[in-house]
Amino acid sequence: MGNTKSNRSIALFGSMKQLIIPVAALAVLILFNLIADPSFFRIGIEQNNAGNPVLSGNLISILDYGSELAILAIGMTIVTAATGGQDISIGSAIAIAGAVILRILCGTESAPETMKAPIIVAFLVACVVSMFFGAFNGMLVSVFKIQPMVATLILFTAGRSIAAWINSNRLPIVNEVEFTYFGGNIPGIALPTPFFIAVACVIIIALVLKFTNLGLYTQAVGINAKSSRLNGINPTFIKFLSFVILGLCVAVAGLIKVSRVSSINYSTIAKDIEMDAILAVALGGNALSGGKFSMTASILGAYVIQFLTTTLYKFKVPSNALPAYKAIVVIILVVLSAPVVREKLSSFWKKIRVSKKEAS
Amino acid sequence: MSSNKSAVSDKGIGAKIKRISDTNLLLSITIFVFFMMYIGAIIFQGSGFLKPQTFFNILNQNAALIIASCGMSIVMIGGGIDISVGGMTALVCMCSAVYLDFMGGNLVVSILIALGIGLAFGLVQGFLVAYLGIQPFIVTLAGMFFARGMTTIVHKEPFNVVNESFSKLKTTRVLIPGMGSVNKKGIYIDAYIELGVVVALIIVILMFCVLRWTKLGRSFYAMGGNNQSAIMLGINVRRTRFLSHLICGILAGIGGYVFFLNSGSGSPSHALGMEMNAIASSIIGGTMLTGGVGNIIGTFFGVLSLATIQNIVALAGLGEAWWTNITIAGMLCIFLILQSVIMAWKHRA
């Protein structure tokens, strides 16, 4: 029993070693910004569109826009751990979730005066739809044994088209103020709402990992599916479940995304976010080939990625060119974590130590 | 390649099918599907599909895809995958276009630029995958985003190339005598294919020969079929894997230039989702995702099947752009599941 407990906390926090990577990356970014332009860290108070005073500044926008990434990183970490692959359809899936929310709220009109249904209903429907698409991915991966990235490539291609089709290619606009709360600020609260939603999601997943065997089982399946089956775990179900959980995360992120603009643009909403989410998991020091994971490191990784994005924006990098820089970061990260390179590096360290000892 | 099971009882069609090798079984399914689809198109869409030029137009529009799919098939037969081909195509188009239009360069250098980009991607991705042991999907996903990002860095706006020697090359057509048709005005027009198609056909034949009769080609199958036994057979698996990505990169470079030749413009949104089409063509063409099974001729028919169904969808009045994507995704899904089921059935003890 004691063993199980320690395994559970490993899923939650990972080894402390793992946290070093995102913290170090964060430190590098902070240092870089301090030297380049200290005004990066300024936090001011501004009036938003509704006339409420809110905090503003780069750090706040990192907390704001990093939140949906953190939520997605939760799901992506579990999928990565269980299947040893990543879901590259989350951007398209967010487009679908957003389209569903707007379809429920606006009906068939393009900009109705009042919402056709309560937001909670729209959100719940989006959850169901997203979980359905997650289940579709999960079925391809777990039952038909297709590599996760190829299986999700199907939805990656079709997703945005499906989203456009749900609303017959219209771009509905929600006119009510309440809908903007999820992606903006609730009046009277200076911090952006997405941050609180992310905190809520983190608390929920922390409780789930603490009180269920989900973390333990996913790690077992990810390390060795065959032996975990012999130990009475059902790998097919665990893999399937991981994609359904990711579907739920996608629905939450989709709500935030459409709430930010009260509308949707099918071809640009959540564009390239799959790259960021994978990057967050990799930056958290989790093996992309599955197995052990640290949820805390992934979530921290997500905010570090957003820090990087904001920094790049600050230096006037156009949004379409961002992927090129991030791709370089990904390559550096995976090269550093490649077993061959690790061995070389550790033997290199040993040599230095030995030569130091001999010198003394 | 675990194909010839002699222990299977030799009665009934099922047993006969079980004795065909995986590659040939999937190839025959592909060719059958293509002909059924084309006949279906002729029956439901009218006589337009009977004209040889309709068929040649499919080739003209998809020459680049055929070349890229050949590279994809080779990587997939070797057990890997490459999703950077679409991004590379866009990058090649943009670089060649900028060079030809803004700098007034000559054709030969622009072709060398295309080959160079393909070579560079192939080298780097092949090295990362083969010698550092990183998952091919992650490497090429990064490659795809890098190529897309670089395309916008090179030039932001889409534009058409104005260059004399290039337009000459672009409008060069290979006439096919005897296959032409009479148009509405009653004038006989010869059927034609573009230069890109000639390149594509040469590459299909070349790659088919390489895979069939060279040591390297057989090594791809051995490596994809079973990595461990390939090592025991004395195959240099690392070098083979490296070469598979290198070939795919070079082919993607050539494919990119053929795409450029067909479109005559550079744009960041060129070849969006082409990697998906290439993977879908390979899979429809009978290449297994797990590696070790596949055929270039099948890939060729895979591209044709995909293009035919796109034409059918467009002609059926579902002109909206989203239907194309949904159809391709649907077809890919069906074929993936079909493969999975057929293989499970065939290799059942």
Neighbour order of strands in the largest sheet of chain A:
1-2
| Envelope shape of chain A | globular
- How many E-type strands of chain B? 4
Radius of gyration of chain A: 21 Å
The average pLDDT of chain B is: 84
Number of helices of chain B: 14
Gyration radius from CA atoms of chain B, angstroms: 21 Å
CATH class identity of chain B: Mainly Alpha
Q: What series of H and E elements makes up the topology of chain B?
A: HHHHHHEHEEHHHHEHHH
Regarding CATH, which class of chain A?
Mainly Alpha
- Helix content bin of chain A: 55-70%
How would a crystallographer describe the biggest sheet of chain A?
2 strands, antiparallel
Q: How many helical elements of chain A?
A: 14
Number of individual domains of chain B: 1
Q: In percent, how helical is the residue content of chain B?
A: over 70%
Largest interface: A-B, 46 and 43 residues
CATH topology of chain A: ABC transporter involved in vitamin B12 uptake, BtuC
Largest sheet features of chain B? 2 strands, antiparallel
What is the CATH architecture term of chain B? Orthogonal Bundle
List the uncertain runs of chain A.
Answer: 1-5
Could you describe the 3D structure shown?
- The complex is a heterodimer of chains A (360) and B (349).
- Chain A has 360 residues and is mostly helical.
- Chain A has one domain (2-316): ABC transporter involved in vitamin B12 uptake, BtuC.
- Chain A is built from 14 helices and two strands, in the order ααββαααααααααααα.
- In chain A, a hairpin with a 5-residue loop joins β1 (43-47) and β2.
- The longest helix of chain A has 27 residues, at 235-261.
- Chain B has 349 residues and is mainly alpha-helical.
- Chain B is 71% helix and 6% strand.
- In chain B, the strands form two sheets. Chain B has a two-stranded antiparallel ribbon.
- In chain B, a hairpin with a 5-residue loop joins β2 (173-182) and β3.
- In chain B, α3 (52-77) crosses α13 (296-315) and α8 (195-213) crosses α9 (215-225).
- The longest helix of chain B has 27 residues, at 237-263.
- In chain B, 49% of the residues are buried.
- At the A-B interface, α6, α13 and α14 of A face α6 and α14 of B.
